[in-house]
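Per your request, structure below.
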C-alpha cells in the first residue's frame, strides 16, 4: 500500500455527502421491494452474499428495510437448511434462468420459489449481527430470536452436508459457491480436471466467438472484463453435472466430481460461527452440543491450510488434501476469520503492504500483481472488489492494525468517489469495470462512511 492515490483538493470533504447521496440513489434504483438486485440488467435476481453486504449498508439508511433484505433470503431456504446462492425472480422473462437450475429436482427445495442448487459464502450471521447493532435492546433480541433458527439450520447443514469427514473445514462443489467465480485456484482445477471434451473441442477449433453471442454479461461489459468463454462453458458444464445429481452432495461426492475446501469460504464460515454464538448468547439460547463441537474444531482447522514453506494459506482439494498453490486474495482472508495467531496475521499484513503483491494504488487486488494470472481488468483475476476490502478492513481492526484499516477505508472510498459505483475496479488505475450502479459497492460505501464517523 505504499503508492497511495494523491489527495486531490476535491477529495477533501465536502465530497462525502455527495458520495452518500450517489450510493443511496443506486440502492433505491436496485430496490425490488423486499430485496435488492445486485445491478439492474446483468443480475436481475436475489443473491445470498450480495443481500448480506447490502443489508450491512442499508442498516444505516433504513433498518426495517435492512431486516427485510435478510428475511427475504429465508424464503429460498431449503428444508435441509441450505441457503441457495440465487433466488430467481418469478418474472416470465426469466424462465430460462430458472430452467437452467431446476431446483425442484431436489425434494428439499422450497415449494413455489425457484432457486439455484448451490450456496455461497455464509455472510448471513455477520449481516444479522450488524443489523442488530442498529436496533434497541428489545428489538435486537426479537430480531436475533427471529433469525436464529434459520442460522442454526444453515450452519448445521454446512457441517453435516459439507464436512462429511468432520475435519472442521467445509467443502464447495462449484466456483460459484465461493463468490469469487473465476478465481485462479479454482480455474486451474477446472481446466486440468473437469474441462469436458466438447469444451476442449471449442478451444481447439476457436469457435468460442459464436458462444459469445448468447452471453447476457457481454451485453453490459466488454469481454476483457468478464470470464473467458471457455471458462463460462466449463462453469456451466460443472453446474449441469451437479444438476444431474439433483444437487445431492453424497451422490456428487460418490461420483468423484470436484470438491475443494475453499480458503475464503472457510474463513467467512469461521467468523460466521463466532457471530452465531454471540447471537445465541444474546438471547440465552443454547446451541446444540454437536454444532458447538464442530465450531470448536473449525477454529484450529485453518492451520491445515498453512504452507510453512511459502508462509501462506491456500485452499485444499477435499479428496487428496493437496494444497492448491495458486495465488489469490484468499490468502489474506484468515485476517477476517480472526482465529489465526498474531504472528501469522503479521505475515499477511506484510503481503498487504507490498506494492508488488497486494498493495497497488487501489487495493486490494483479487490476485497479487506478481502472479502470472494477474489481469487488472478480468473479474476475480486482478480487480479490486469493495466486499473483499470490507472483510479485510474488519479483520485488520480486530488484529489491532487500525492505521492499515483506516488507510484501506480511505483508498476504497476514493476508488468509488473518483470512478463511480462500479462492480469492480482496476487496482492500478482505479478504472471502473463490470456492471455500473452495483449494489454491494454502494452499500459498503454507506457502511464505511458511517463507521468512519
Ligand atoms: C457474480 C459474483 C458473485 C456475486 C454475483 C451477483 O457472480 O462473482 O460473487 O454474488 O455476481 O452480484
Amino acid at each position: 500500500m505504499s503508492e497511495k492515490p494523491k489527495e486531490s483538493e476535491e477529495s477533501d470533504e465536502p465530497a462525502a455527502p455527495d458520495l452518500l447521496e450517489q450510493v443511496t440513489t443506486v440502492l433505491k434504483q436496485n430496490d425490488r421491494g423486499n430485496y435488492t438486485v445486485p445491478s439492474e440488467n446483468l443480475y436481475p435476481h436475489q443473491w445470498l452474499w450480495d443481500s448480506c453486504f447490502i443489508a450491512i449498508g442499508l442498516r444505516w439508511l433504513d433498518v426495517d428495510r435492512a431486516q427485510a433484505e435478510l428475511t427475504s433470503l429465508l424464503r429460498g431456504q431449503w428444508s435441509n437448511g441450505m441457503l441457495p446462492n440465487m433466488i430467481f425472480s418469478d418474472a416470465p422473462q426469466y424462465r430460462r434462468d430458472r430452467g437452467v437450475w431446476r431446483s425442484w429436482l431436489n425434494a428439499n427445495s422450497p415449494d413455489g420459489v425457484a432457486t439455484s442448487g448451490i450456496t455461497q459464502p455464509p455472510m448471513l450471521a455477520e449481516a444479522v449481527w450488524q443489523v442488530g447493532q442498529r436496533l434497541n435492546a428489545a428489538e435486537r433480541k426479537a430480531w436475533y430470536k427471529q433469525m436464529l433458527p434459520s442460522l442454526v439450520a444453515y450452519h448445521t447443514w454446512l457441517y453435516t452436508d459439507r464436512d462429511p469427514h468432520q475435519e472442521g473445514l467445509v467443502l464447495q462443489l462449484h466456483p460459484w459457491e465461493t463468490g469469487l467465480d473465476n478465481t485462479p485456484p479454482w480455474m486451474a482445477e477446472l481446466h486440468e480436471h473437469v474441462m469436458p471434451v466438447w469444451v476442449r473441442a471449442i478451444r481447439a477449433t476457436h469457435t468460442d466467438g459464436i458462444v459469445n453471442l448468447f452471453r447476457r454479461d457481454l451485453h453490459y461489459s466488454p469481454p476483457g472484463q468478464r470470464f473467458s468463454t471457455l471458462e463460462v462453458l466449463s462453469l456451466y458444464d460443472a453446474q449441469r453435472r451437479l444438476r444431474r445429481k439433483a444437487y445431492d452432495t453424497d451422490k456428487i461426492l460418490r461420483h468423484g466430481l470436484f470438491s475443494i475446501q475453499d480458503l475464503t469460504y472457510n474463513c467467512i464460515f469461521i467468523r460466521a460461527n463466532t457471530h452465531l454464538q454471540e447471537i445465541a448468547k444474546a438471547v440465552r439460547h443454547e446451541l446444540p452440543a454437536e454444532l458447538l463441537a464442530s465450531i470448536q474444531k473449525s477454529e484450529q482447522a485453518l492451520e491445515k491450510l498453512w504452507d510453512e514453506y511459502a508462509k501462506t494459506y491456500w485452499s485444499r482439494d477435499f479428496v487428496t488434501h493437496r494444497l492448491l498453490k495458486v495465488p489469490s486474495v484468499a490468502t489474506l482472508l484468515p485476517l477476517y476469520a480472526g482465529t489465526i495467531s498474531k504472528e501469522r496475521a503479521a505475515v499477511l499484513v506484510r503481503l498487504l503492504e507490498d506494492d508488488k503483491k497486494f498493495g497497488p494504488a487501489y487495493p486490494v487486488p483479487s490476485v497479487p500483481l506478481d502472479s502470472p494470472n494477474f489481469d487488472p481488468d478480468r473479474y476475480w483475476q486482478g480487480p479490486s472488489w469493495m466486499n473483499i476490502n470490507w472483510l479485510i478492513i474488519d479483520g485488520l481492526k480486530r488484529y489491532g492494525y487500525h492505521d492499515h484499516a483506516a488507510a484501506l477505508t480511505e483508498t476504497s472510498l476514493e476508488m468509488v468517489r473518483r470512478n463511480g459505483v462500479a462492480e469492480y475496479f482496476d487496482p492500478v488505475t482505479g478504472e471502473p469495470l463490470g456492471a455500473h450502479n452495483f449494489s454491494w459497492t454502494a452499500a459498503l460505501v454507506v457502511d464505511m462512511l458511517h463507521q468512519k464517523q
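The first helix runs from residue 15 to 29.

Regards,
D.
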